[in-house]
Amino acid sequence: MAGTGAGRRIGGLTLVVAAVFGGAYGIGQLSGPIGNQPAAAEEHDGMAEQEGHGAEHTAPVPKGLQVSQDGTSLQVLSSGLAAGTPSDFAFRIVGPDGHAVTKFAETHDRNMHLIVARRDLSGFRHVHPEMAADGTWRVPLTLAGAGDYRVFADFLLPGAEDGLTLGADVPVSGAYTPVPLPAPALTYAVDDYRVTLSGELTPGTTSRLTLTVDRNSVPVTDLQPYLGAYGHLVALRQGDLAYLHVHPEESKRAGPSIVFYAEVPSTGTYRLFLDFRHGDVVRTAEFTVVAGEHGHE
Ligand SMILES: [Cu+2]
Q1: Is 41 or 147 the better-scoring residue by pLDDT?
Q2: How confident is residue 134, by pLDDT bands cut at 50, 70 and 90?
Q3: How far, in Å, from the CA of 244 to the mean position of ligand 1?
């Protein structure tokens, strides 16, 4: 019921194929088990895949839920972070040999993307740390309030086909009042800008999302490239903060619309964070989106 107002429905099984079976297409993949799948569905695996609905049986665990994956670990070096106080957040990536990794491959113009959000999905940050020769990454960070934060290190190891996103909890002591998740909405205002979302997240398919940027009600047609694209979109699932980094369809037009393809691993509520750059400032627009059921239409 909550999902009915979230926007028009995106059909199109043709889109599904690339996302479900073409892991290397650069389409954001956040596929995982869908908890409410009936057990009998396993028997029909082959048929389900032919129909393009097999993602939930074969897809990996969503990103960002593990502090260690495939022998590579995220080690947070900072402790005792205080709310409202600028501090250097430090971490390293430790490889299977127990040593800090010092060689990374570039994705979206950077060797490391660090995403930070409090467990209540407030306080989103997307920053780019610098690495010292010993593999220690540092970035100045001011966390506005106390609470449990989640940090995501999003990176690509040289020679690897897929990027890794490792997540860790970072506590910030102090009195903590969780912020309720804002209700689903299709517009978000930041400074003079208004960003409008159209599209719907449907688990098990590739969802096409369009984000349109206006400034003082005038469409923005001179968005500035940011990290090699006109926008970056991160989605976090409410409840466990499963992580989805989606990237836009390549476009020569600098706005007002940016098109993304996203695949969500399950029904549920997601918070979307769009970073866009205009007038040399990076701003973030946020949306709550409810992903509906799939396969029952
Ligand atoms: Cu980044």
Answers
A1: 147
A2: very high
A3: 13
CA distances from 52 to 19, 127, 222 (A): 10, 36, 38
Residues 255-276 pLDDT 10s: 899 999 998 889 999 999 999 9
- 234 Cα: distance to centroid of ligand 1 (angstroms): 10
For residue 176, report the distance from its CA to the centre of ligand 1, in Å.
28
161 CA → ligand 1 middle, Å:
18
Q: Give the Cα separation of 106 and 138 in Å (integer).
A: 17
**Residue-range domains of the chain with CATH:** 68-172 (2.60.40.1930), 187-291 (2.60.40.1930)
Cβ-proximal residues to 45 (8 Å cutoff; 6+ apart), any chain: 54, 57
**Ligand 1 centre and the CA of 139: distance in Å?**
12
Residue 153 CA, ligand 1 centroid: distance in Å: 9
